[in-house]
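_Full entry_
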Amino acid sequence: MAENLLTDRAFRNLKPTDKEQLVKDGGGLFVRIRPVTDGGAISFRLAYRIEGKQRWATLTATTLAEARKERDTFKAQVKRGIDPSTEKRLEKERQRQAQLTEQAELAKQQALISVRDLFERWAATDLQNRKDGGKEIRRMFEKDVLPIIGGLAVADVRKGHITEITDALLLRGVNRMAKLILALVRQMFRFAVDRDIIEFDPTASIRKAKIGGKSVERDRVLSEDEIRALYRQLPNANMMPSTECAIWIMLSTCCRVGELSKAKWEYIDFNAKTWLIPDEHSKNGKPHTVYLSDFALAQFKRLAEFRESDTWLFMDRTKTTHVCDKSISKQINDRQTDRDLSNRSAHKDALRLTGGKWTPHDLRRTGATIMGNLGILPDVIEKCLNHTEQNKMKRVYQRQELKAEQAEAWRKLGERLELLTRADGGNVVTFPTAAKA
């Protein structure tokens, strides 16, 4: 410990003069007093020797006690062979570098976008071009994706985060939904890779086949005996009359449930016996005219008897727009389930058929299959289904619409359904097997 020469009183009595003063305190510490002409400021300097050379350091202390403490720290460094002035400059540089690093990290964090931000950008760029403007995908993400990873930075998402989403869906028993969500999340992250938001897609190493097992192409077709059973069971299923009509319309026109749920009265021509599905409602973006059989037309007329809107065939509960296609599917599903459905439990088996669970899309497949069994040519059936021709050569050069043939196909399908649903149970010979259309 260095000997201190100045007392507190002596230090307080130091006064500036017309010349600079260096007052010795001890251990190489000096009090520096600027001339009156320079303001008379007091500071502290330290004289020390290192590597045989005399050096000076200006201290940062503002009081004598602080200066003595800083002196002792400097002298301890000199004893270890460290030059305090050099160390001071190095420490200042280290602090500057640490500050720059912190600022860079902060800028990097601020530059990172969250998964929710990425979804909004993807929705605005890609999803808005879909027929529904991306509403259905947004609903799925808001329910099953964003609550889990929405707050994460896109760059921080790992494979485990994605499987957390799909595992939750698998636990709910919705395996097909898990696969669909995975495919959509993959689209979103590939969108991010294409725009250099991230370098690698965290879903890239996840095999779709490992999520809920291998995909199996659905081929459920209602047999003609099941159609007869459906006719008998429907009146006791406690369904909305409009949904009963929807079931027979989907079966007799081979339309999709989404096309039917969005149908407008202006597109139904009762005189011409046609239903126009406009391009914005069809899956392939092409308008499609359905030539209504007497069987199908009767369902539309029945529907018109309790119409609730001058616009939509099927109104939602708000009475402002069309019903969601999932509403029709849910009504059908709830009547062939093992789950308790509160006040609807009494009817949960009402539409269960011997061939197993069936869906609205199975009705479309069934109608096409019956057409095939009636001898309708495959090309005509494909036209009735409004499928896009897969063969490029045919698609380019064979533009015939086969309207008369389509009308005949629907007529024959309607007549067959008329026979199968006769109130007297008609003695109809059913086809031995359900061929795939």
Q: What stands out?
A: Residues 175 and 214 are 10 Å apart (CA to CA). The chain has three domains: 8-107, 115-210, 224-420. The domain at 8-107 is CATH 3.30.160.390 (Double Stranded RNA Binding Domain).
